[in-house]
Amino acid sequence: MTEGIRILVVEDDNDINQLLCNIIKKNGYIPQPVYSGTEAMLYLEKKEWDMVLLDLMLPGMSGDEILTKIAEQSNVPVIIISAKLDQPTKIGMLRTGADDYITKPFDIEEVSARIDSHLRRYKRINKLANTKKLIYKDIEIDTEAKTVFVQGKALNLTAREFGILVLFLTSPEKVFTKKNLFESVWHEAYYGDENIMNVHISNIRNKLAAINPNEQYIETIWGMGYRLKT
Fold first, then answer.
1. How many whole angstroms separate alpha carbon 92 and alpha carbon 104?
2. Of the given ranges (28-37, 149-158, 181-190, 218-227), which has the lowest mean pLDDT?
3. 6-126 belongs to which homologous superfamily?
4. Phi then psi for 156, rounded to 5 degrees?
5. Are strands 139-142 and 133-136 parallel, antiparallel or unpaired?
6. Per 3-state DSSP, what percentage of the chain is helix, strand, and coil (rounded to 5)?
7. For the chain, which residues make up each domain, given as ranges?
8. Domain 133-228 coded CATH 1.10.10.60
9. 56-65, 126-135, 167-176, 203-212: which range is least confident on average?
10. Which of 16, 43, 115, 151 is surrounded by the most beta carbons within 10 Å?
11. Which residues are within 8 A (CB) of 105 and not within 5 positions of it... i.e. 6 or more apart?
12. Rounded Cα gap, residues 103 and 217, in angstroms
């Protein structure tokens, strides 16, 4: 029994919601059923969740609006479970921030396996975020001492640059929008001043290149944002 793992189930169809909650219970987790987008936002604002299962067609507030809000404020894994079969919708949701997309009608064992898989990955990322040292390629960050070394050489970063780089290393596969980065590091609302983030990313790249010009660390995902280059 895996205690304490709480999953928010956002689905307006009572039978499907119950089925998903039963799958979650069988896996040893704690489900919380909600039946509208408005209700979901109340639960998301009040508590921290380990996962969200999210339908798209909801009363009160649509699933894609909820997904956008979650992606801006949290790294919690989100699995979309929807009757929408078209490829553009799937791609759009994954680009917005969903971790997975399952179409209805779904296979119970597949949903069960995917929930477990994403929770394992989320646990690994959180464990990495809570360690004192973060390592990526030849970058080593000590989050307690607030030092950064590249190829063993000290890298001098401003507080903002340090915060951005730590964010990248704690979620190495995530694509961060400029809004994500600004609000996570500055802890202020982002009003669309792209130049601020462009300058900081450019400064980080230049400082990394000064020590190791043969490696690329941060890549631009056009129309979306930035992530660590794999």
1. 18
2. 181-190
3. Response regulator (3.40.50.2300)
4. -90, 115
5. antiparallel
6. 45, 20, 35
7. 6-126, 133-228
8. no
9. 126-135
10. 115
11. none
12. 35
